[in-house]
Amino acid sequence: MAVRFIDPKNTAAYKDYLNADPEFKIAARYMTKDVCIEVGNTKCIVKFRDGIVTQIKSENAFADPWDFAIRASEDAWEKFLMPIPPRFYDGIFGGMVRGNFRLEGDTISAFSHFWAVTRMLDIFRELQNK
Amino acid sequence: MVKADQIVCKYIHLNIQGIEYRVFYEEAGTGIPIIAQHSGGGDGLEWHFMLNNPEITSRYRIIAPCLPYHGYSLPPESEEWWKQEYRLKKSFFMEFELALSHALGLDRPVYIGCYVGGNLGLDLAFDYPDEFRAVIGVGAALSSGQPTLDTFYHPNVSNHYRMVNSFYFCAPLTPEKYRREIAWCCMQCAAPTTKGDLYYYFYEHDLRGKAQFIDTSKCAVYLLTGDYDPTISVEDTLIMANQIEGSKFTEMKGLSHSSMAENPPVFTKYLMPILDEIANQPTKK
Fold first, then answer.
1. What number is the ipTM of this complex?
2. Measured on CA atoms in the order B202, B205, B210, B211, is the torsion positive or negative?
3. A118 vs chain B: nearest CA distance in angstroms?
4. Nearest by CB: B230 against A98, A107, A112
5. Which of B53, B135, B188, B239 is the residue whose CA sits 20 to 30 A from A32?
């Protein structure tokens, strides 16, 4: 199963979908951060400006700065994105506790905006299975 | 006709370690008493399904207190509590349960607790086996490591962080309405209280090298853990269960960290055989 949110063909549509989600709009308010999501060796940067996702960049993102990163293997992301994920892959924090996901960088910022990040990933799961 | 729950709410004043606390508790049912202790960063609301379940309250008297600093149990009036960091200590936590039990005249009640409360059940079984006829530890283990707790109470991190954690600690098939309710309740607890509760959980609860001395002939031990709980896994609880002779462990399929509130009918299915077994225990004097 290919992880769809890092596919450059999908990023523009995913950005619009995020910004249209009612819960995400509340969760992401005031957020101005660059969030790196790493799937195996592939990186994408989700850019938030004042609560709006302005870009999901998955091409040529190797030198783009980021505030915090969520990293996991492709296998871990595939499990996370399943409609009913297996245990220890169903949530980022739980996945971190069990060593399946890593949070790096400005972790305080990550926890400050945890709701926006987790809602975003929920939407990615929804879109993965559409 | 007005619809009303059959729950009674009261305040009781308990003296614990020389300080008077005005403690709120909810009560429902008649029969064998059960003290239902909420988890860290929670309050008695966690047990509202059990308090409202006539299958349980027709035979058991459920008492669900709010620890001081939680829910409707305020910090003590006599102390300048704002000048110190709140930390839940094991000795206080155990003495609170004993003080409550004695003040209400309970005859060797059953104790049930979840997560932080679950671990306390095992500490009570170890230190006070004559005070409880049985303990039910939901999401309990020998110990849990000593991580940094700063993010639970940090000027740049709001209570939304705890709301999100509790939401995503629910199993994937948790009904949305219950998941949202758990998250909402969790968000209501003060951040310093959550951090302080986790101090007991991570730094004071440690039954390694001791669990094997718990005497289940005095205090029966039942362990329930949700298969999706990432904080205390089924394997973690099994390690402890294997060390406590006579303990009984059940893996709860499709449940996770807040199992009693995630899916009450499913949790009740696991709980009732335990309560039935406790009810059929010979009475000890």
1. 0.91
2. negative
3. 8
4. A98
5. B188
